Amino acid sequence: MKRFLTFALAGALVLGLSGAALAVDVQVSGTWEFAFGWIKNEGFHDNDNGYDGNADNFLARQRFRTQADFIVSERLRGVIMLEIGDSLEWGRDEDGSKVGNNGGGSIDTDGVNVATKLAYVDWLIPSTEVAVRMGLQYIVLPDAVGRGNPVLNSDVAALAVTVPFTEQVGLTAVWARPFDVNSNDGDGNHSLADEMDIFALILPVNGEGWSFTPWAAYSRVGASSGLLEYAAGNSGANGAFGLDTENISFSGDDSADIWWGGLALEVTAFDPLTFGLNAMYGHMGKLEATLDDGSGVLSDFDFRTAGWLLAASVDYKLDWGSVGLFGWYSTGDDEDDARDGEYGRLPAIGFDNGFAATGFGGPGSFGNGSDTVVSATFLGTWGIGVQLADWSFVEDLSHTLRLSYYRGTNDHDVVERGTRDGYALAFSGEAVYLTDKDSAFEVNFDHVYNLYENLAMALELSYIRLDLDEDVWDDAAGKDYADTSNAWKAQLLFQYNF
User: Fold this and answer.
1) N or C, which end of the chain has less CB nearby within 10 Å?
2) Which neighbouring-strand residues pair with 342?
3) Strands (E) located in 293-353
4) Cα separation, 392 vs 319, whole angstroms
5) Which helix or strand (DSSP H or E) is residue 169 part of?
6) Rounded to whole angstroms, how far apart are CA atoms 186 and 240?
7) Beta bridge pairs of residue 171
8) What is the rounded (10 degree) CA torsion for 217, 222, 224, 226?
9) For residue 245, with 0-12 CB atoms within 10 Å meaning exposed, 13-18 middle and 19 or more buried, which class applies?
C-alpha cells in the first residue's frame, strides 16, 4: 500500500508539472485509526442524544490521514495531508448522500469524502537559515504542561516565519487568516467585519535543563466573520464564548480587537523530577449585540470577554513509568458583569485539541476515541488530577491511570438570574456549563499494546460522575435537570502509523 501511494502521488506530481524536469523525493506517512466500543450518557441524562436505557450505545468508526512530503532538498519541500473521515461511522452517512468528510459509511461505501487536512510549502530563504512555512498548516501556541493551548490549537491558513538567532534563542512570527467570508467573491463585499486575522510572536529561549517561551497574539475579528458561530458550534458551553447564537445577533459592520499574552515554562534540570507551567491572559473588546429572549422582546448589549488560565504539572519518572500531579485554574463569568454583556473567560479561537485535561470529559482521548463530553477547553473551571502514566511491567504493554476532580468558576447567579431574565447565558446542550456550585469526578484507565512497531491497540475505560446543584439548575433548566446520570465509555482503538 505504501509503495502504491508513493507511486500514485509521485505520478500526480509529475503530471502536474507538465513535463518539468525536477528531482523530487516523495516520502509518504500517515495515521489510520479505528474505534470500536460503547459510550453511555454522554449528555449526562438518560434521554439525551438518544442514549436512553434501550438505546444502542455501540459505535464503530474510522479516520484515515495520509501525508506526502515532496522533497526537493533540505531547503525546500511541499507537504499535503489528505483525510478520509474525521469520524466516519460504519453503516452511516453524514447526510444520506455519501458526500462529505464523513460520508460513505453505509452499504456500497463509495463516499465522496477525501478532505484536505494540510497543504503547505516549507522553504529556507536563500543564503540564510530563516525558515518559512506557508499554506494550510497546524498552528499551536506554546504549551509546557502537555495538555494543549486553548487559545489557538488548529489547522488554519497561515504564514509562519522562524528566525534562529542562536542555538538557544529563536523567534517565530505567524500571520493566520481563519475567516474571510467574502474574499474575492466578485460582489465587492469586502470589509473588516467579515474577516479575521491573527498575528502572533513566539520567542523560545532554551537553556540547560529549562526552556522559557513567552508569546503574544493580536486579532481583529469581524462580527460577521463566523468566529462566534464556529466557537459555539464546535465547543459548546465552555468554548471560546459559549454563546447561544440562535438568540444572539451581532451588528454586521462591527469589529473588535482581541489580544493575548502568555508564557510556557518547562524545567528538566532536576530530572527525574520535571515541572511545567502555562500562563495566559486574553481580552476581547466589545461587539454590539442584540438578544431575543424568545418572546420577541429584543435587548441590545455590548458583548466582550476577558480572562486568564494557569496550568501546571509535576512529574517524577520511575523505572517502570511516571507519577504526576497536574492542575489548572481559569476564570469564569461573573453575574454582575454578565448583565452588561461582559464575560470572564479567556477568549479562544481553535478547538482541534483544546485543553486536554482529561481523556473523556476533555479532548485527551487516544486517536479518534470519544471525548469532550464536558468541554473542549475547560475554560470557566478549575481542577486537579493525579496520574500514574505509561507504567509497564510487560514489554510493549503500558497503562495510564488518571483521577481528576474539577469544578466551575462561573458565578451560579449567571444561571439563576440570567436565564430567568433572558440574559445571554454561556451554556448549551453540547457541553456542560459548570458553575461554582457544580463539580465532576473523572477516572481514565487506559492501556496501550504495541502489536507491531507500526500498529498499536488501545483500550480506554472512563467514568464521569457529574454533580449539578439542584437550586441552581432545576429552576433554570427544568425540573430534575440536576438529576444527572453517570457517563462512561469502554472503547477499543487501533492506530496504524507508517
Assistant:
1) N
2) 304
3) 298-318, 321-330, 342-343
4) 9
5) none
6) 32
7) 163
8) -10
9) middle
Q: What is the pLDDT of residues 364-373, one digit of tens each?
A: 898 888 898 8
Residue whose C-alpha cell reads 524545567 in the numeric block: 267
Contacts of 144 (CB under 8 A, 6+ apart): 211, 213, 264, 265, 266, 276, 277, 278
In angstroms, rounded to a whole number, what is the distance separating the alpha carbons of residues 403 and 279? 23
Cα→Cα distances 430→232, 233, 358, Å? 9, 8, 17
**Which residues of the chain fall below pLDDT 50?**
1-19, 49-53, 235-243, 419-430
Measured distance CA(189)–CA(182) in Å, rounded: 6
Residue whose C-alpha cell is 461554582: 436
In three-state secondary structure terms, 25 is: strand
**What 3-state class would DSSP assign to 288?**
strand
CA–CA gap between residue 20 and residue 351 (Å, rounded) = 40
DSSP 212-224: EEEEEEEEEEETT
- Please state whether beta strands 455-467 and 76-89 pair in parallel, antiparallel, or not at all (unpaired): unpaired
- Alpha carbons 247 and 244: distance in angstroms, whole number: 6
Q: Hey, what's the cell of 4?
A: 502504491
For residue 238, count other CB atoms closer than 10 A to its CB.
Answer: 33
Query: Tens of pLDDT along 107-155?
Result: 989 899 999 999 999 999 999 999 999 999 999 999 999 888 989 888 9
153 neighbors 178 (Cβ within 8 angstroms): no
- Give the 3-state secondary structure of residue 238: helix
Q: Are 35 and 491 in contact (CB under 8 A)?
A: yes
* CA 157 – CA 327 distance, rounded (Å): 32
Half-sphere exposure of residue 183, counting CA atoms within 13 Å on the CB side? 9
The confidence score (pLDDT) of residue 430 equals 40
User: How far apart are the C-alpha atoms of 274 and 156, rounded to whole Å?
Assistant: 32
Residues 123/160, Cβ–Cβ less than 8 Å: no
Distance of CA 319 to the CA centre of its chain: 32
Among residues 127, 114, 23, 117, the alpha carbon closest in space to that of 70 is found at 23
Q: Say how far apart CA 407 and CA 75 lie, in whole Å.
A: 49
Q: Is the dihedral of CA 27, 88, 459, 388 positive or negative?
A: positive
Q: What is the pLDDT of residue 424?
A: 39
DSSP string, 80-124: EEEEEEEEEETT--SSSSSBSTT---STT---B-EEEEEEEEEEE
Report the pLDDT value the prediction gives residue 390, as an integer from 0 to 100.
95
The pLDDT of residue 272: 96
